[in-house]
Structure formats: structure tokens, C-alpha cells
Amino acid sequence: MRKRKRTVFIGSVPIGGANPIVVQSMTKNPPSRLNEAISEINRLAQVGCELIRVAVPTLKDAYFLSELKEKSVLPVVADIHFDSRIAIKAIENGADEIRINPGNFPKKHLAEIVKAAKARKKPIRIGVNSGSLEKSLECSAQSLADSALKWARLIENLGFRDLKISAKSSDAAMTVQTYRILDKACDYPLHIGVTESGTVATGAARSAIALGKLLEEGIGDTIRVSLTGNRVDEIDVCYEILRTTGTRNIGAKLISCPSCGRVQIDLTKLANDVQSIIRRIRKPITVSVMGCVVNAIGEAKNADIAIAGGVGHGLIIKKGKIVENVKEEKLLGKFEEELEKMGAL
Q1: Which domains does the chain have, with CATH numbers?
Q2: What is the pTM of this model?
Q3: 227-249: buried (b, 16+ CB within 10 Å) or exposed (e) per residue?
């Protein structure tokens, strides 16, 4: 059972408590590249991203935050390093939350930042990373947790508790151990993830192992899968981890066969095209894409909607019953049509 933490609101999105685990990602563009950043945010929101983090490396970017906030469909977390002036300006210009990194942030200006956050009722994320841990500490699970908790106490002593904590490592086992320590030591909501986890193949595997363990132990209130590549893939992997662990039943679950010598349809393209379509679905449904008769009918019985491929054609099946035999070039159109009838799109 998921452990209850304090509830913190990032804009209109509640984190912690009994609220659903929130899926987030990060733009590749800073606020000063406004159109590109907004395009990223819109694309990620369409596939289920619920919270967006934006790097704010300069004061110029902090000034652009107000315009980005006006246009963003998602709550915005401003990612700040090194400079307290940028943190304060980001708060003043509408960031829904700021993230600061104890490994590179000037402690002497912490009171000014907390004062600004308190005045505007904006939460702070304490974000520790193994790659930028405070220089006085050796990298370990205990040190990562200790750094985050030390900064939480510093901020608490300034009369502020609207906090969220993350303490990530690129090592999956260290990540798990760090969050276990944090979970026992505090009641702040935890943002979980494996930092710099790699490409889709390596990053999805490392993240699934680490985050799957944590989620099954009831640890985690918001989640990101940090991948080198397309940010949309991050959202896909996040939801698949949540669905597979039974933590959050949302969106379409895809079942597809790996293909073999029996298959006589372009199954790889078909499955990828289906995946692109169902990314937009928030309704919990099961979709099956199979290439031959061996497993297709059996899987279709357990799916809300299925495609069973043949020679240049495919069957559209709903709840185990054949709807139509469709030519290959018309399969996707018919598939979308049936999804719309189901109210899934």
C-alpha cells in the first residue's frame, strides 16, 4: 500500500496524500526559446504528461517564464542551479514550483528564496543528484538522503514546509536504497526517478527495475523516467511502469507479438503506428496487435480491441468478437474509428 505523505500543490496538481502518482517530464528548451518550449509542452501534454520541468539557466530565461506560464497547459517547475537571483525571479515570474540542487546552490541566499516562495505560496523541490552531490560528501545512498534531509531541515528552520524531495542516482540499486531511507525519515512527497538512465533501451530497463521496486513498496508520489532521446518515450515508459505495478490504471495497455516466420503483414510498422495512436488515450483499455492466428484470437478475447494480421489484411476484433475484415492499408483508419465509437479517443 502506498504510504501517505504531505500534500503539496504544484499549480492545480496535488502531489502526495492519496492523490494519483503524477507523471512528469522536462523540456529540452529553456523559456527564452519560447515557441520551441511551448511546442514541447503541448506535445507532452497530449500523451499524458501532467507536470513539466523547465531549465532556467539565466536571468533572461527567468524573465521569459511569465510568458511561458501564460501559454503552458501544464504546471511549470523551474529548474534552478547556482544563482539565487534566478530562483527569486522565477518565483516572481510565475513558476509553480522551483527546484534547487544542494550540490551547487549557495546556502547563504536560502533565506531570501524561502521568503519569496512563502510570499507567493510556491513550493520548493529539493533535488539531489549523485552527479552533483555536495563536495564534502562521498557518493552513497546515505549521503544522497542526508543531503536532501539536511536542506529540508534548513528550510524548515526558516518556517517553510511546502517541500518536495528527490534524491536520484544513475545507479538503480543506489536509487532504491536512497528513497527507502528518505521514506522512513520524512513525510514530504517524493519525486522518484533514476537520473541519466540512458537511451530508451537502457533507461527503460533501469528505471523499470528501480521504480518498480519502489512503487511496489508504496514509495513515490511523482515520477519521471529520464531518457536520452524523445521525451514522448519518457511518458510511455512512465505509464507502462505504473500500469505494470498496478499503481495507476490509466491509458492503453498494448499487447503485441514479436513477429516470426508465420507473420505475413508488416507487424512492426503496424504495432508502432498503433502505439502512436493510443498514446492519446487516458481511458484504461487493453489493445492487442498480433500477426497470425496462433495467439491472436486468444489475446483478442482478453483485449478491449484487437488487430489480428493476415496476408495483406487484418481482422478488427472487439471483446473477442470480429467486427470486420479490413485491407491492410485501411486497418489503422478502421482501428481509430472503432476507438472513437468506444469513447477512447
Answers
A1: 8-244 (3.20.20.20), 252-342 (3.30.413.10)
A2: 0.91
A3: beeebbbbbbbbbbbbbebebbe
